[in-house]
Specification:
Elements lengths: L1 E6 L2 E3 L5 E9 L6 E7 L6 E7 L4 E3 L7 E6 L4 E6 L8 E9 L2 E4 L3 E5 L2
Parallel strand pairs: 2-11
Antiparallel strand pairs: 1-3, 3-8, 4-5, 4-9, 5-6, 7-8, 9-10, 9-11
Length: about 120
């Protein structure tokens, strides 16, 4: 069983920053990919950023230059630093773990960008 617990969401003004964190626990194997997805009301869930256990990253175009994903393998933790936030970044953000062809999801944390 794998559990993902997110933290760090909240309300921020346009141009502000937030840092999301996700801690994974359970049967986690060394070779995995952790990432963040988001889903705005009425829209499909979309990839924000992902990082492999070897540190290879992948970003959606919407976050390039503004978002940075990082991980601490010893602590099974992934972070998403979000800068220069825009109202269109408003969404529920979900932590994702892919290991041995199975995907696991956190419960989500809300990010609201508004003045």
């Amino acid at each position: 069983q794998v559990q993902l617990v997110e933290s760090g969401g909240g309300l921020v003004q346009p141009g502000g920053s937030l840092r999301l964190s996700c801690v994974a626990s359970g049967n986690i194997f060394r070779d995995n990919t952790m990432g963040w997805y988001r889903q705005a009301p009425g829209k499909q869930r979309e990839l924000v950023a992902a990082i492999t256990s070897d540190g290879i990253t992948n970003y959606a175009e919407s976050g390039k230059g503004r978002f940075t994903i990082s991980r601490d393998n010893a602590k099974n933790t992934v972070h998403l630093q979000m800068n220069s936030l825009k109202p269109e970044d408003t969404a529920a953000y979900y932590c994702n773990l892919i290991v041995r062809a199975r995907a696991y999801w956190g419960q989500g944390t809300q990010v609201t960008v508004s003045s």
